[in-house]
Amino acid sequence: MERNRNNERLDKTILRTSTNYLLPLLILFSIFLLIRGHYLPGGGFVGGLVASIAFVLHSFAYSPTQTVKMFSIKPFFVIPTGLMLCFLSGMLPTLLGYPFMSGVWFADNVVAIGAFGSALIFDVGVYMVVIGVVLTILFTISENT
């Protein structure tokens, strides 16, 4: 019995230590996928899933309560913000005389991103929606158990 407790503590220590290193790396990788997604495979959905997985890993290592404390606002409120960004990225071309959801690219390139346009704004909105939905589901389930 004592041996099982020691193994559980060791397992928890290993998981927490690895989470402390993996969380920032996974977040950076998710941002990389987000930024490169409008040119190559990746984008807001995949980047959002990777970021969500980072927070799910943190909640496994510590607790969902401690993971919630990492956020200044509840993840549920990120969903409408992301949806609004998606809608605005679709409306931007109509303001410039193009059809709804057409790709609009701005003239100047941005360092480390390249061409900046409405596709990236849409991807950021999807990124926020995916993170908000996954974390809202995770925290809702953890509250009820």
Automatic annotation (TrEMBL):
Name of the protein in question: Multicomponent Na+:H+ antiporter subunit B
Taxon lineage: Bacteria, Pseudomonadati, Bacteroidota, Flavobacteriia, Flavobacteriales
Na+/H+ antiporter MnhB subunit-related protein domain span: 14-136
Cellular compartments annotated: Cell membrane
Membrane-topology descriptor: Multi-pass membrane protein
Transmembrane segments: 21-39, 45-64, 76-98, 110-141
Listed Pfam families: MnhB (PF04039)
Family: Belongs to the CPA3 antiporters (TC 2.A.63) subunit B family.
Entry annotated with the keyword Ubl conjugation: no
Major subcellular site: membrane
Highest taxon listed in the record's lineage: Bacteria
Cellular compartments per GO CC: plasma membrane
UniProt KW keywords: Cell membrane, Membrane, Transmembrane, Transmembrane helix
Organism: Paenimyroides ummariense
